[in-house]
Amino acid sequence: MRRAIVVTGALVAAYLGSYLVLRQTCAETWERDGHRYVIIPPTGRVLYYLYRPVMYVDQAATGMRFHIGPHRE
């Protein structure tokens, strides 16, 4: 039982850690509205759906916004 808790904790930590890396490396400010966005690469739709649950929490807590692919003017 203890081993299952440790493994689950490690998986949750890896998930959140990898999300934070994505958030830090793909964040940019859009000049048009001045808000920060995490820009998910257009080829990274799997990432979008994988991290979507934590994105909802992040958006509610910090106001960060998310977008797939670059903004189009």
Unreliable residue runs: none
- Mean pLDDT comes to 90
Percent in helix: 55-70%
Number of domains: 1
Terminal residue distance: 54 Å
Radius of gyration: 15 Å
Give the biggest sheet: 3 strands, mixed
- Biggest sheet strand order reads 1-2-3
Number of strands: 3
Q: Class by helix and strand content?
A: alpha+beta
Strand portion: 15-25%
Number of helices: 2
Order of helices and strands, N to C? HEEHE
Shape: elongated
Describe this structure in words.
- This protein is α+β, with helices and mostly antiparallel strands.
- 58% of the residues lie in helices and 16% in strands.
- The chain has a 3-stranded mixed β-sheet with strand order 1-2-3.
- The radius of gyration is 15 Å and the shape is elongated.
- The model has no long low-confidence stretch (mean pLDDT 90).
Properties at a glance:
73 residues, alpha+beta, 2 helices, 3 strands
Chain-wise SSE layout:
Blueprint: H1 2-25, E1 27-29, E2 36-40, H2 45-62, E3 65-68
Parallel strand pairs: 2-3
Antiparallel strand pairs: 1-2
